[in-house]
Amino acid sequence: MKTIGFIGLGIMGKPMALNLIKAGYQVSVLSTSNATAALVEAGAATFDNIKALAENSEVVITMLPDSPDVEKVVLGENGVLEGIKQGSLYIDMSSISAGTAIKIYEAMQEKGVEALDAPVSGGQVGAEAATLSIMVGGNEKAFEEALPLFQAMGKNIVLIGAAGAGQTTKICNQMIVGMTIQAVGEAFSLATKAGVDLEKMREVLLGGFAQSRILDLHGKRMIERNFNPGFKIKLHNKDMNLALQAGKTYDIALNGVAQVASLMAASIEDGNGELDHSAIVLQIEK
Hints:
By secondary structure, the protein is α/β, with parallel strands linked by helices. It contains 14 helices and nine strands. The strands form two sheets. Strands 3-2-1-4-5-6 form a six-stranded parallel beta sheet, sandwiched between helices. It has a three-stranded mixed beta sheet with strand order 7-8-9.
């Protein structure tokens, strides 16, 4: 059974690491994390710094907010790259730019380490239930080695293509999710103004062609005004901006993405960046 070093114990990372422990893996975490106590109670070991954690792990997994965070942790002084041993496996499950994923892949290859970019979708609920969709970029041999780990955290696991392909797929996922949340928010705002019962409307729409996971879960959040974060607006806005950057790279006009990104940016300016991304409905209503 492989030893795993897990870095990034946030809303998603903490339950993902716990599910690896439940599956029987020996997981190590950083002693400086706020969630360390819960992981130690579940059986995790601790290390005081990233380099030591990487030196003592056969697999290192990161689950961090943004590209600069991953670059700092992996490529920075006393980071993962300095500590990880030849023949080990590095997996980044964060949502970052494809360019950063490729850069890290190439750095790991130079050290004789396989690397996968494996961002996830499914939110906090999926992380806790181990039902995440995992979209993977990298070579097939590394994917097969990592598959049992992925199966401890998710259900829909697909090798998309070469390094960076996982992150490109995740950006496309975030585009669809963001625009669908906006569509549900606008529909609910219109229905509210027209005096339509949102509970009944949601119920009937879930039985028709408008049915979606967003309408189901986030529609309920909007009705109940429950915006405790499963995925924060500020992080989704980061992903939408990554999509816009990719659009410029490939000369594609992403008008819908630009509109949602603007809506999210306004939400952040209003102090709602820490709320769940379904809370962009507040900006629509405003």
